[in-house]
Design a protein that fits this description.
The complex is a heterodimer of chains A (112) and B (113). Chain A has 112 residues and is mostly beta strands. Chain A has no helices and twelve strands. Chain A has a single domain, classed as Immunoglobulins (Immunoglobulin-like, Sandwich). In chain A, the strands form three sheets. In chain A, strands 2, 5, 6, 10, 11 and 12 form a six-stranded mixed β-sheet that branches. In chain A, strands 3-9-8-7 form a four-stranded antiparallel β-sheet, with no helix packed on it. A two-stranded antiparallel sheet of chain A has the order 1-4. Chain B has a single domain, classed as Immunoglobulin-like (Sandwich), CATH 2.60.40. In chain B, the strands form two sheets. In chain B, strands 2, 4, 5, 6, 9, 10 and 11 form a seven-stranded mixed β-sheet that branches. The chains are: A mainly beta (112), B mainly beta (113). Chains A and B meet through β5, β6 and β11 of A and β4, β5 and β10 of B.
Chain lengths: 112, 113
C-alpha cells in the first residue's frame, strides 16, 4: 500500500531561521501530495497541495516542490515565525483508491 | 473557508454500547471521509464514501463499523458494539472531487470505558 515518511518527529527552531520538513512517499500510482497543519485540539487544515512535477505552490510563506524522481515533497520556509509552531502532516492521495495516507507528522516548535 | 461540522464534540460510552458520530460536510461536496487519531499518534484513514457507497476502507475499519449518508443528511459513522480500543478522536472530512482538498471537521473525542 501507499506510505508517507516524515523523518523528523520533532523539530525545534529559533525564530527567523529557515524551516525544512522532509517528506518522501511511495505509491503505485502518481499521487497528489498535500501538507496539512494541525494546531493543538484543532482539525488539520490544508497548507499546500501539489499536482504536477516542478510546480511550487506557496502559502503563508511555506512552499514545497514535488519531485517525482526522488518521490519527495519537502516543506520549506525561509524564516520561521512563532505562530508556525504546530503539527505538520505530509499526505499522499491515491487517485485509484481515493485514500489519503498521512505520514507520522512532524511537531515544529519555534522559540524566540 | 468551507466548514465541516461534527456532532457531538465529545462522547463517553460504555464498552459494548453503540455510538453514532455525525458529520455535516460542506454542502456541495461529493466525497466524504472518516479518520481516526489516537492521542499522540498519527492520523489514520478509515473509510471514504462517494455516491452512496464505500469506495475504500482500511484495516482499521472493522466489521463493527458502518457509514451512511441517508438522503443527503449527516454522514454518519456507527460503531456497534464499541471496544476499548475505539477510544480516539474521529475526524470527518469532505471534498468536492476525489483528489481535491479535503476539509476536516473539528473532530469527535470518543472515550470508551
Amino acid at each position: 500500500g501507499d506510505s508517507v515518511t516524515q523523518t523528523e518527529g520533532l523539530v525545534t527552531l529559533t525564530e527567523g531561521l529557515p524551516v525544512m520538513l522532509n517528506c518522501t512517499y511511495q505509491s503505485t500510482y502518481s499521487p497528489f501530495l498535500f501538507w496539512y497543519v494541525q494546531h493543538l485540539n484543532e482539525a488539520p487544515k490544508l497548507l499546500l497541495k501539489s499536482f504536477t512535477d516542478n510546480k511550487r505552490p506557496e502559502h503563508q510563506g511555506f512552499h514545497a516542490t514535488l519531485h517525482k524522481s526522488s518521490s519527495s515533497f519537502h516543506l520549506q520556509k525561509s524564516s520561521a515565525q512563532l505562530s508556525d509552531s504546530a503539527l505538520y502532516y505530509c499526505a499522499s492521495y491515491n487517485t485509484n483508491t481515493g485514500k489519503l495516507t498521512f505520514g507520522d507528522g512532524t511537531v515544529l516548535t519555534v522559540k524566540p | 473557508g468551507p466548514k465541516v461540522l461534527q456532532i457531538p464534540s465529545h462522547q463517553i460510552i460504555d464498552m459494548g454500547q453503540m455510538v453514532t458520530l455525525n458529520c455535516d460536510p460542506v454542502s456541495n461536496h461529493l466525497y466524504f471521509y472518516w479518520y481516526k487519531q489516537i492521542l499522540g499518534q498519527q492520523m489514520e484513514f478509515l473509510v471514504n464514501f462517494y455516491n452512496g457507497k464505500v469506495m475504500e476502507k482500511s484495516k482499521l475499519f472493522k466489521d463493527q463499523f458502518s457509514v451512511e449518508r441517508p438522503d443527503g443528511s449527516y454522514f454518519t459513522l456507527k460503531i456497534q458494539p464499541t471496544a476499548l480500543e475505539d477510544s480516539a478522536v474521529y475526524f470527518c472530512a469532505s471534498s468536492l472531487l476525489g483528489g481535491d482538498t479535503q476539509y476536516f471537521g473539528p473532530g469527535t473525542r470518543l472515550l470508551v470505558l
